[in-house]
Design goal:
The chain has helices spanning about 1-10, 25-40, 75-85, 105-110, 120-130, 170-175, 195-215, 270-280, 305-310, 345-354, and strands spanning about 15-20, 45-50, 95, 115, 140-145, 150-155, 225-230, 235-240, 255-260, 285-290, 305, 330-335, 335-340. The protein has about 350 residues and is an alpha/beta fold. The protein folds into 2 domains: about 1-240, Rossmann fold (3-Layer(aba) Sandwich); about 255-354, Structural Genomics Hypothetical 15.5 Kd Protein In mrcA-pckA Intergenic Region, Chain A.
């Protein structure tokens, strides 16, 4: 087995916990390539998590890895998980049919590496800036040119180095609200990327190579980008430097605070109390809630709130807001940050034993 692993160069994947966000042109190809590589090398992952908000449509057979009639209408996460299990029967696969904004932060917390296979700047910002970076999890992100050219891009974003937004300019932030193609509520006509499957497969392969290098060598290499043009045989690799004027605060939140009560009976008052216990001398406390959670009365469109803003609703149950048992609420007290952990009683007991 040792010789086999050395030859395949796949020992770096053994026992790792991975998350794939987005299962379209790139993501559907990536999970199959990953599964086949692991099966060939005889390597077992610790866990594979898959998240996507949309379902398989007949048109996806053209440029995504869904070519069976019985997959049409099924969530992409379930179809991809079934494919993976058929190749690697022993792999543990967890699936979530949801938008990234709805995915609880705790779902990303115990992951070694995330793959971003997304189709909008906002989704990438959510994955990297609001999820993975805060938890000190590296991301390998891939993209394709949607205009019909065979151009692909892979970015490796390592917390502590340059972030996703270090290379963004004004135009990127203006595009941040552009809707992504496969909207689950059908508010816009569905449209698939024009990128052919071979381009998605090429980007997926490059992402796996970058991830293997990162898992094997660690974060020492920092953040970097690869852009390649299949039509003209060109490839450009570059290091991404941290931008002094970046809008992102580059904070990794290390401290975790147990809520102290089971999620099902906890209220906002319990969140406030947990924060006050942790930051007793900090004075003014600020609470950051997940995007969109409080975009309605009585809270308004703000993400950061002070304790005083919450007091009038402090008796409201967390499940009413709605929040989920694996969510995290970020607290800032002075110069320190922490996450209040919203888990069930067993998770709370485990947190307290650490």
């Amino acid at each position: 087995m040792t010789d086999r692993l050395k030859v395949a160069g796949a020992e770096c994947w053994a026992g790792k916990r991975l998350l794939v966000a987005g299962l379209g042109n790139i993501g559907s190809a990536l999970v199959l390539q990953l599964a086949r590589m692991l099966a060939e090398a005889g390597v077992e992952l610790g866990l594979l998590r898959l998240i996507d908000r949309s379902s398989v449509a007949a048109r996806h057979a053209v440029n995504q890895a869904y070519d069976r009639a019985d997959e049409v209408g099924r969530p992409k996460t379930l179809a991809a998980a079934e494919r993976v299990r058929a190749i690697c029967p022993r792999v543990a696969v967890e699936t979530l049919v949801a938008d990234l904004d709805q995915a609880p932060l705790g779902w990303f917390e115990d992951i070694d590496l995330c793959f971003g296979c997304l189709d909008s700047l906002q989704a990438r910002q959510t994955l990297v800036s609001e999820r993975a970076w805060r938890l000190n999890v590296p991301v390998v992100d891939g993209g394709v040119d949607g205009g019909g050219e065979l151009i692909g891009r892979v970015q490796t974003v390592v917390p502590g180095g340059a972030c996703l937004e270090c290379v963004w300019g004004v135009a990127h932030y203006r595009q941040i609200a552009r809707e992504t193609p496969c909207h689950p509520l059908g508010r816009r006509p569905p449209q698939s990327t024009a990128a052919p499957l071979l381009l998605g497969e090429a980007v997926a392969g490059a992402m796996l190579a970058e991830a293997a290098a990162l898992l094997a060598a660690g974060p020492a290499g920092g953040s970097r980008e690869i852009v390649f043009d299949l039509a003209n045989g060109r490839r450009l690799e570059s290091r991404i430097r941290r931008a002094a004027g970046c809008r992102y605060d580059h904070a990794v939140v290390q401290r975790r605070i147990p809520l102290g009560r089971s999620f099902g009976i906890a209220t906002l008052a319990d969140v406030i109390a947990a924060a006050e216990r942790e930051f007793a001398a900090a004075g003014d406390l600020q609470f950051e809630f997940p995007r969109g959670l409080l975009d309605r009365p009585p809270f308004g469109p703000r993400r950061w709130l002070r304790a005083g803003d919450l007091l009038a609703n402090s008796d409201r149950g967390l499940a009413e807001l709605p929040l989920a048992p694996l969510d995290r609420i970020r607290i800032r007290g002075g110069e320190r940050d922490a996450f209040v952990v919203l888990d069930d009683a067993r998770a709370i007991a485990e947190e307290l034993r650490r």
